Amino acid sequence: MKREENMTFQRRDFLLLATLAAAAASVTAVFGQEVTPAAGPAGSGAQSAASIPNFSGIWSHPYWPGFEPPASGPGPVTNRSRLRGGPQKGVSDPRQLVGDYTYPILKPQAAEVIKKHGEMELSGVGSPTPTNQCWPGPVPYIFQALVIRILQQSDKIIILHGVQVRHVRMNEPHPGRVTPSVYGDSVGRYEGDTLVIDTVGVRTDRPFAMIDMFGTPYTEALHVVERYRLLDYEAAKEGLERAARENFRLPPDAIPLVADSDPNYRGKHLQLKFTVEDEGVFTTPWSATITYGRPPIRDGRGPGGAEYVCAENQRYSGRKPAVPTADKPDF
User: Fold this and answer.
1) If you ran DSSP here, which 8-state letter would residue 326 be given?
2) pLDDT truncated to tens, each residue of the chain (331 aa)?
3) CA-based, 20 to 30 A from 282: which of 22, 31, 99, 126?
4) Of the candidates 186, 251, 197, which has an alpha carbon nearest to the alpha carbon of residue 229?
5) Cα–chain-centroid distance for residue 132?
């Protein structure tokens, strides 16, 4: 019975993820046409517009929970629960997200947090996360969104991760004193064909403070560096194959078209490689990738593009989300 209840809980999480991806489609429509990358102001040290890669548009990654372990070197915490049968045998079991608390790079306190998170999953209760509790996800938790949209401007880049929006200031340093915030302080620059984003100051005094679906905690020392590159299909295949070996590929009929990947697409892919440092949690930095393709529809419209408000949707988790509520109606 507990196993059945847990499977129901996780299936409802899938509904939430699919709806979040659909919500991204409706949000992106507000921005209209893409913004052509432009160079920064004179004297800023920014690249010329002609040399800046165009990362704009909708990119999808229909794998759950999402992070791709690197080809070599330390990587993210992975799922101890694996599918035992079926066409995706051996990949992460999406019904039970039990982080590997024995991972050697984890410090003891962090390992204990992950262990308790996994015990909740195994008990059939299900563990609370920003996703199922309607809270914004910090960096790098937010990278697990099934669909993103990038808007490039001369002085900033806007990235929509599902329904969440990040603003990246270009060609500026971090302030001398960073005020902690949900997504942290993100500054970007171009290094040749690579967009580099540096993030610090991610707020820790908040509910459901974790950097992945396994409950991995973080501290004020969290430092994340993102590196985005456009890759030809042949070069992107290696990352796509790593994703398929580790993560569960969501069925096309379970997610909106805008969150799916076009299996026949052979154009440019987008690969994010990010590095995480946090001396309060890990003994060494680690890295992971996310390799995005293009969805079958790319204009933010189509089936599943309806507006969605997480806090008003009680279907998905079997419990009331931990969002602020009033004791009585205002009117």
Assistant:
1) -
2) 444 434 443 444 554 454 444 444 444 444 444 545 655 544 455 666 668 999 999 999 999 998 999 999 999 999 999 999 999 999 999 999 999 999 999 999 999 999 999 999 999 888 999 988 889 999 999 999 999 999 999 899 999 998 899 999 999 999 999 999 999 999 999 999 999 999 999 999 999 999 999 999 999 999 999 999 999 999 999 999 999 999 999 998 888 888 888 888 999 999 999 999 999 999 999 999 999 999 987 554 444 444 556 666 544 445 566 666 677 776 6
3) 126
4) 197
5) 14
Dihedral Cα 238, 244, 245, 250, nearest 10 deg: 170
Extents of the domains making up the chain: 2-312
Q: Is 254 exposed, middle or buried (0-12, 13-18, 19+ CB in 10 A)?
A: middle
Strands 185-191 and 164-170: parallel
